[in-house]
Amino acid sequence: MNIKLIRRIGVIAAALVISAGTLVSAQSKKSVSILGDSYSTFENYIEPKTNEMWYFVKADPKRTDVTDVKQTWWHQLIKDGGYKLEQNNSYSGSTICTTGYRKEDYTDRAFITRMDNLGSPDVLLIFGATNDSWANSPIGEFVWSDWTTEQLKSFRPALTYMLSHIVDRYPNTELLYIINDGLKPEIITSIVEACDHYGVPYIQLKDIDKTAGHPNIHGMKQIADQVSAVLKK
Hints:
Layout: H1 3-27, E1 31-36, H2 73-81, E2 84-90, H3 111-114, E3 123-127, H4 130-134, H5 155-169, E4 174-179, H6 185-198, E5 202-204, E6 210-211, E7 214-215, H7 217-232
Parallel strand pairs: 1-2, 1-3, 3-4, 4-5
Antiparallel strand pairs: 6-7
Helix pairs in contact: 2-7, 5-6
């Protein structure tokens, strides 16, 4: 066989091996979805696009210094951890339950309404309950099955409904519930009890730096670092 042809075949074969390796490497990256509230929003990076946001490219400096998606906690986590983004379904001001601020009906934006629209992630990060705490949503009593529409207006029943459904809806998905700092004690203890009941791991954030109640650039880095430490374990 012609020596030049042999060399050419060898080069082509090597290129195919490299290409295949690159493709396998890309496909092997774990995908991450986020079910969140304002802390996880950023303009043009949430889905559905109709969800309300807190973080914008042209930000109000009185509200935040976060002006780049690369500054968000989830973008840092995904980039530094070698993950890929599946879907970020975050909605500013949203509650777990269907009762929001001023006792308004938040069914359209509640976590329990959006929890089926997260794609097919390998890792699912749930970051919510901040607004349930701030809005003084009804706490209610724990309900572990056969939830009613009326019960889902309160935090505890909605929380257990959400976790029960997510565990079944996303089998073989690594779950992590992120608990904000500064929430009402009954909100925090309820999350811990519900997560323990359904076997969902959780992390309690500590000393997050915030502006207007929301993580600033430094706070975003703190969240990314704290969550990343748990996922690496």
